[in-house]
Specification:
about 260 residues; alpha+beta; Glutaredoxin; Glutathione S-transferase Yfyf (Class Pi), Chain A, domain 2; 10 helices; 4 strands; about 50% helix; globular
């Protein structure tokens, strides 16, 4: 029986090419299928991680504007309506924490969680800051400047909400700028901290409210700019940053696939 994954993110093309549960496997991996939305930072983190770890992935749009995550069809797969969600062959899971852990363990690159416990603890601290401090404010901006406009193009932007969110982000981004310092990445080596913050900074810039917040912080600006040419953690030539959605992609509810050509 075809589920939402197979409807929205089929593992093979119309001509039967591809691999996974319906085709030839590569590196003993099945094609990953992801359901999410292009304005959801957690969805973008999953796409970034798949590209970094060399795992091919088909992405499908979950219509959260119409509360599809609460539909009977979706709830049959994930009873709490949690998204983004992932499928590999017959295995499914939902929620960014589990998906990132699965991709990290299943992928071809080095672990994105440092083996050194003290470095891993610093990574986790900056992930917590991203989730608990930065995300609510960036999502408020995304909601006002992007999502509400998708629902109703005539919807007025609440500039008080935007101003408060930007004000709240100032000390958070100051601290991140100081943490990066002269290092290439947030904790020195590329890690999950970079994936979390890449998705957030990208969405912040797409709102049109983040240019001064990012560009005025030289270390964040340098770090973020460097990601545009950084090849994947897994050794393939793919640049994960290139898979992040444009504002036009968001308006068209489009998510990128992860395609690996150089196994």
């Amino acid at each position: 029986m075809m589920d939402l994954f197979d409807k929205r993110a089929p593992t093979s093309d119309a001509d039967g090419e591809g691999y996974g549960s319906s085709g030839e496997m590569k590196k003993t991996q099945y094609m990953l299928q992801l359901l999410g939305t292009p304005w959801d930072p957690d969805t973008l983190k999953c796409i970034l991680a798949a590209a970094e770890q060399g795992m091919e992935l088909k992405s499908g749009y979950l219509d959260t504007l119409a509360d599809e995550q609460d539909s009977e069809e979706y709830r049959e797969l994930f009873e709490f309506g949690t998204y983004p969600s992932l499928k590999e062959s017959d295995y499914t899971l939902a929620g960014v924490t589990g998906i990132l852990a699965f991709i990290n363990a299943r992928g071809l690159g080095y672990s994105l969680t440092p083996k050194n416990i003290t470095v891993a603890a610093v990574q986790d601290f900056w992930i917590d800051v991203a989730i608990t401090e930065a995300t609510p404010n960036i999502q408020a901006l995304v909601q006002e400047k992007v999502v509400n406009q998708l629902k109703d193009p005539n919807c007025a932007v609440d500039m008080l909400v935007c101003a408060a969110a930007k004000e709240n982000l100032v000390p958070i981004l100051d601290a991140l700028d100081k943490q990066i310092g002269d290092d290439p990445y947030i904790i020195g080596k590329y890690s999950f901290a970079d994936i979390h913050w890449t998705a957030l900074i990208h969405l912040l810039l797409l709102t049109g409210e983040g240019a001064d917040l990012v560009q005025q912080r030289s270390q964040i600006n340098r770090w973020y700019s460097s990601l545009a040419t950084r090849k994947s953690n897994s050794g393939q030539s793919i640049v994960s940053f290139s898979l992040l959605p444009s504002l036009e992609d968001i308006k068209n509810k489009k998510l990128s696939y992860v395609v690996i050509d150089d196994f």
